[in-house]
Amino acid sequence: MALRSRYDPYREITSLREQMNRLWDFLRPAFGWRGGNWGEAFTPRVDIYQTEDEVIVTAEIPGLESKDDVEVTVTEDTITLRGEIKRDASYTQEGVYHAERYYGSFSRTFSLPAEVKPEEAQATYRNGVLEVRLPKTEAGRRRWVKVPIQ
């Protein structure tokens, strides 16, 4: 039996953005740009999955100077990640020969696949990866009951 996943209205927009980025990467050399992503927005890559007892959110956010550069807010059914990847103060566009790293502010909000307890959320940041563990409420836990057939 297949479980129905929640509709994510941002999935199609994200797909379109990724297609436009690929097109831009293809066309950019024709205009003489040798750099990479000057001025493009940083968007952390995020995975959301669940176990029987919790929802786990992992986000690739390399380059944070400290854990204070990212903020995580959680409701019973959503999570928001906000932060900023800062450039070195000596970095200027005039001196750029090649640039591929992303910088800037980001904010992403996701619907969660189950109801969670926001007050019990725990987050860690190691090696460029943010992990948030969200315990499920009793209502958020799926119960399986085998129904006898008569």
UniProtKB/TrEMBL annotation:
Alphabetized CDD domains for the sequence: ACD_sHsps-like
Keyword set includes rRNA-binding: no
Residues of the SHSP domain: 37-150
SUPFAM superfamilies on file: HSP20-like chaperones
Residue stretches making up the CS domain: 41-148
Keywords annotated in UniProt: Stress response
PROSITE patterns, per database record: CS, SHSP
InterPro entries named in the record: A-crystallin/Hsp20_dom, CS_dom, HSP20-like_chaperone, Small_HSP
One of the Pfam families matching this protein, by short name: HSP20
Superkingdom, natural source: Bacteria
Family: Belongs to the small heat shock protein (HSP20) family.
Protein name: Heat shock protein Hsp20
